[in-house]
Amino acid sequence: MYRIGLCGFDNPMRDQKTEELKKHIGQGVKIKMDDAGNILIRRYAKSNVYVKSTASHPNEETSIGADILKLPNQALESEKIVKLFDMKKFQSNVNRELRRAYPDRRRLETQCLSAVAFVKSETDILECPIWVLIVNVVAMDMLKSKLPPGNCSINVRSELK
């Protein structure tokens, strides 16, 4: 078990508002991967914790767990364990993408990223004062085996015309 604490990173450029919000995080969240490759998350913070989509477009597929997608603003409930990353959903998305004429590797790579914002939610993750990005290396490796780098969706000839 590894522990990462946001309070361990000093930033002399941090603004006062972020400093104040950081105090509200408290115990934050606990994140772990199960044997199936799912990433589970549990909120311990008294303040809100939001899961943010990393998709380029609002209607684009993600690998965020169904229980989170049902929550208002994807705000995690206190002390409840939910799937932050759903491996079966990701595998299904990979298989669907591979059936396309030009599979989009970037769209699948983006699904391997999970963004979690603390205290306050904004439409753009970069506008959130405190957030973390979790990279699912297991999913990235699986993607690499099914769609090796270099097999991308860009049809150079059609783009040059």
From TrEMBL:
Coiled coil: none annotated. Residues 1-161 form the MH2 domain. Signal peptide: none annotated. One of its GO terms (biological process) is post-embryonic development. InterPro entries: SMAD-like_dom_sf, SMAD_dom_Dwarfin-type, SMAD_FHA_dom_sf. This is MH2 domain-containing protein. It comes from Glossina pallidipes (Tsetse fly).
